[in-house]
Amino acid sequence: MRFRGKVRGFTPSDDLRLDGRSCEDYRYVEVETDVVSNTSGSARVKLGHTDILVGIKAEIGRPKLDRPDKGCLEFFVDCSANATPEFEGRGGEELGTEIANALYRVYDNERSVDLKSLCITPMEHCWILYIDVLLLQCDGNLFDAISLAIKAALFSTKIPKVQMMEDEEGTTEIELSDDPFDCVRLNTENVPCIVTLCKIGQRHVVDATLQEKACSVASLLVSVTSKGTITCVRKIGGGSLDPESIYEMIEVRPPPLNWTQILASTDHATGLAYLGSCGGTAGIAATSQGHWSWLWSSLDSACPLWHLWQSGTSLKSDEPTRLGAAPPSAIIPSEWWCRFVPLVAADLHTWRGRLFQDSQLQEAVSFGI
Amino acid sequence: MAADMRLPAPRKRSTNLPKEHGKHLVAPGDVITTDSGFMRGHGTYMDDEKLVASVAGVVERVNKLICVRPLKTRFNGEVGDVVVGRITEVQQKRWKVETNSRLDSVLLLSSVNLPGGELRRRSSEDELAMREYLQEGDLISAEVQSVFADGALSLHTRSLKYGKLGQGVLVQVSPSLIKRRKTHFHNLTCGASIILGNNGYVWIYPTPAEQNEEAGGFVTNTEPVPLSDREVISRLRNCILALSVHKMLLYDTSILYCYESAFHHQIKDILKPEIMEEIIEETRRRILEQEG
């Protein structure tokens, strides 16, 4: 039943929610793997009253045409009618497709699941993992629970070892070993987990219940790996989010910023450019005659945070919240990566359209220092 | 940031529960009696010559009538019950209130206290201004005045203690867990007030500083609630949820004992299974001591 949520008295100084949690606490989670016997991997996650069951089946199929040497993941989300009366009949289909699309986006990353290991013969055979998510009970915070369940299920997935045998006629046959325990496990270290941040009043909360969700105007869905790499940022909900608050939400625990200085090469406009990384997020800030601009960040290109800086907003260099307290120095971060984001900057127009690959930037770094 | 992950554990059955003497518990399909001289009431059906239960509950026998009172059921209201409900619709001359029963309850315009006097005649202007008093989504506390033929309840708020509810927390439990008492409005000593609706809706709110009798039931206080009050209310809410998970009867004494047992735990830890069991054990022990 829909009821209007009114928020009063949710002052920033208090950190107390309805059930006594702070804004950044999760409810207790129960995780169980290998619950479904005839799957390659499965998991069940209970987060408060939210109950998610994930089953993974590994099948041999043809790889996609644009990725001939990689396997793939196929998601299907089923909102069972037992979860809430709204899912009766076809009511749950819309939510199911929305969640499935978000999952495709989150896990479509080279670094999260090693898809190359799922390849058997390039262009011919590969393992396709069909990941089925079943919503048994709905009590808010679906995305977090689903990502936890998928990570646990991938951890427990056993893929049988295959051997390609050549016949006398030249046809290839695939042979699976007879031993059921002779299988390959996936490396799930870098599989991302989704964190949903709901904005209520002036604060954001993590792991919102259904009641808290009814009071929030918009939420931010961030999928992050254990190393701090962000794979997807998505905004859900009808309300609007101030770019300042998005930055505040993502920086839930700001790690220290390490900056590396690179010098602009001659085909760029005047000024110095700084490449920095904050956890796994990298960014380029440039200065031209004392005006700073944040040109590019490795978040999703559709992220509204990027649009804040797109218009060339000036950024003062003594703002500790943005650039970190440490002055730019020649510290090279141990792990950073870059993605292509079209650059639009009023005074540094020649940076537009530049594609940064790992190797290129490493060259630039070693060249500059 | 705290995230507690664990493997699921089987729920423990309490071994030192007092034996319930004389309570005939049945499950659906259980044979109650094979004696054909009984009239069958609610929750039973005839299967061949046997009287079989159709719901899970307690068998009640009144002379020749046998019925089964279910443990988990919708609220069946009786005259005089105090309920906490939510307005779902505003219709001509009445409001529809959701009270966890089979049909939405009805609150007639003539059954509420309007400012300007008790016995004022309800005019058409009152009808048009209904939405200013109670809107969809508002919570009210009311008393059951009568029961319609189809089972719908007719509510009234004709006393100053009933009316629209302001800031507070609503907890929904099963109606069978609310013990029938003389009064359902309590000002607990721990610093909050509570309304135990017979329909399973429990309303926890900060104790009003002074009892303003003139305002009537429709003015709500929207001042921010101080943090200390909110902590008490959150703790009470978790205690009530803990009691309902362990199927203990809810009344002011049991809630107070549970609050005192839970006082030295952190509020968010009360809902963790092992801490919940510890608190409930102590509460059960204290209640037995007090009764026995």
Automatic annotation (TrEMBL), chain A:
Cleaved signal peptide residues: none
A GO cellular-component term linked to this record: cytoplasmic exosome (RNase complex)
InterPro entries cross-referenced by the UniProt entry: ExoRNase_PH_dom1, ExoRNase_PH_dom2, ExoRNase_PH_dom2_sf, Exosome_comp_Rrp42_subfam, PNPase/RNase_PH_dom_sf, Ribosomal_Su5_D2-typ_SF
Localization in the cell: Cytoplasm; Nucleus, Nucleolus
GO molecular function, one term: mRNA 3'-UTR AU-rich region binding
A GO biological process held by the record: rRNA catabolic process
Main location, first listed in the record: cytoplasm
Pfam families according to UniProt: RNase_PH, RNase_PH_C
Record domain Exoribonuclease phosphorolytic: where: 26-160, 190-252
Record key words, sorted: Acetylation, Cytoplasm, Exosome, Nucleus, RNA-binding, rRNA processing
Complex formation: Component of the RNA exosome core complex (Exo-9), composed of EXOSC1, EXOSC2, EXOSC3, EXOSC4, EXOSC5, EXOSC6, EXOSC7, EXOSC8 and EXOSC9; within the complex interacts with EXOSC2 and EXOSC4. The catalytically inactive RNA exosome core complex (Exo-9) associates with the catalytic subunit EXOSC10/RRP6. Exo-9 may associate with DIS3 to form the nucleolar exosome complex, or DIS3L to form the cytoplasmic exosome complex. Exo-9 is formed by a hexameric base ring consisting of the heterodimers EXOSC4-EXOSC9, EXOSC5-EXOSC8 and EXOSC6-EXOSC7, and a cap ring consisting of EXOSC1, EXOSC2 and EXOSC3.
Family listed: Belongs to the RNase PH family.
Descriptive protein name: Exosome component 7
